[in-house]
Amino acid sequence: MLKEGGGKDIHIIPLGYEFDRAIRPFDERHIDRVHLITMDEMEKYSSPNERALTNKQRYYDNLVIKFIENRGIEIVVHRIDMFEILSVMALVSRIIKEEILQNNRVSVNMSACGRLTSFAVTQAAMAHQVKLYYVRADAYSQNQEETELHGLSICNSCRIWDLENFRFDLPRDLDRIILLKLSQNPDGLSGEDLLYSVINEGTNGYEIKFWELPMRERRKCQSNYLTKLRKGPIERLIKAGYITKTRIGRQMVLHITSSGKYVACVCSE
User: Fold this and answer.
1) Whole-number Cα distances in Å, 221 to 191, 212, 226, 229
2) pLDDT per position as a tens digit, 215-242
3) In the chain, which segments carry CATH 1.10.10.10?
């Protein structure tokens, strides 16, 4: 197993009912730390059938954890609702950004989990331009014995597809701040409320607290700032399809779109 130059090699493995697809890359690739993402035990999934599925998940969790620990590799386990796409995207994005800040190399295994989770982690990996790979199966388990030994997929050898990333043009600076503010306010924000928030955060170009100025200067400064917001970041986010703008009387009200929610997840801290 070859190791590239400085920094550590980090693998993020979201896990479903798989074993081979999670551990086969360890045969060929150097790995210093693993972030294992798996299903949490949640009250809303409490029916007998759902509990049985969670117990089944724990079986594969334990198999993978034991394998990694026996290799002497550090492992961090994250439990989350794997059916909540936005939560998964936000978690994977946070892990990626934290590891990159430590000058580490990040790879994401998108093949050891269910389709819904795979979609979420693929979006997050591509948005942050880290390595994304798919472990190919040689066959699929046909009985209980094979399923318990291999998981749903049988991988007799390490065959990995490294996937090409698409370039995502993520919002930056003030555009990002506005998108995150709207993601935290699903009922929308007026232009004025957004402006107050932007100023209170000390955003470059919006340093003056206009409400502390004399009345004539206050109105002029507020109007200039609102125009600057509308013609700059707000217009860009609307064109990108991340937010919408409506008018209620004389007031501009902004809402985040479904696409905007996905992007906000990968942009969040």
Assistant:
1) 14, 11, 9, 12
2) 889 889 999 999 999 999 999 999 999 9
3) 173-267
